[in-house]
Amino acid sequence: AFDAVATAVRADLPILRPDGGPPLVYLDSAATSLTPEPVIDAITGYYRDVGASVHRGKHMLSDIASTRFEQVRAQVATEVGGGTRQVAFVPNTTAALNTVAAGLPLDRGDLVLAPLDVHHSNLLPWRARATVRMIPLTPEATPDLGAYAELLRLRPKVVAVSACSNVTGRFAPAEEMARMAHEAGALFVLDAAQSAPHGRIRLAATGADYAAFSAHKMLGPTGIGILYGRLAELAPSVLGGGTVDWVDLAGHRLRDEPHHLEPGTPHVAGVYGLGATLDYLRGLGWDAVAAHDATLTRLLYEEIARRPYLRPLGGPGHRDRAAIASLRLPPGADVDEVARMLSDSYRVMCRSGKLCAQPMVDGDGDGRPVLRISAYVYTTPEELGIAFAALDEVLTVTGVPLG
Ligand code: PMP
């Protein structure tokens, strides 16, 4: 069953088709996943057969687009476990989190708590509006719940958390943290960008007041994301067409949620693609996706454990972790150069950098970037083997001792 999932998805990925060269090994899925043919077809099908915008008129093509647009919203609502009025289409997770931070009534003096591992997209929007205090991490790089309990006594307005770290792959105890936030009278905002792709898409069940994810990390198109939550309570920060149902010379009346948060012509093709994405993942089965992920995570951390010269952020251990690993390379290795050589000489695509989580990456290192390997539902054990063998060779030929 493990290989069946990957085999099925790989058959649908045009980019992996043999082209006479060495196989392409794509291990940057935490940044953006590959796109299967049914999703590509849904996107091009919209442009080919429909083309019109949504909610903008009475003609047939606009009706077709609007009907599908709202069907996909209902599909998302079912997946997250909420209602359609709790689901807004936004460009990506970053836009969703900015919409929440800008839409809540916050003052500079208000306190927001966020664990040290949050992505910049779940830190900077809060820092622009309020005062942020970081929740420290345990040695395994999950939020330290004791320290969190102490910080909650300061009466924060908001707690903003990553459900899964894009650096370490560790899942945070989101439900418990939400419950603790609510007991302290704070709103709980969950960045689900890395957890939703790995089968943890039941956002309502986490107790989060707001949550966000991006289609492009779960086989879907770029440019479309989901903001889930108590949308009626958010003031729109971008106004214009689509957000209002009455305008006269004296003022305007906002549309009901979620439409007041969907300004301008939306990414209709992206929504078509997202609908196909959710159908596709459901076809694979969320449990199968999560099980595949758990096996890959184990194999990934076994490869790392065999190499004492690699230090994964967040420590070893594969349990309750997505198939993401960020590696400190031995001293002397130029991490960006290693990533370039893996790509150009071995066709192994992985990420080097601070991973948009610089406070965490710099807080646990020497100022150098890390090398991130991240797998998804189409990744095979053979690909992990190829990548680590290539990494060993690159380090060796660049003169980095592996001893
Ligand atoms: N949060 C996390 C945890 C992420 O990994 C990412 C993507 N790198 C984002 C937020 C931002 O997602 P997007 O670029 O789609 O806005």
UniProtKB/TrEMBL annotation:
Pfam families: Aminotran_5. It comes from the Bacteria. One of its GO terms (molecular function) is transaminase activity. SUPFAM superfamilies: PLP-dependent transferases. Its cofactor is pyridoxal 5'-phosphate. Keywords: Aminotransferase, Pyridoxal phosphate, Transferase. PANTHER family: CYSTEINE DESULFURASE (PTHR43586), CYSTEINE DESULFURASE 1, CHLOROPLASTIC (PTHR43586:SF8). This is Aminotransferase class V-fold PLP-dependent enzyme. It comes from Actinomadura gamaensis.
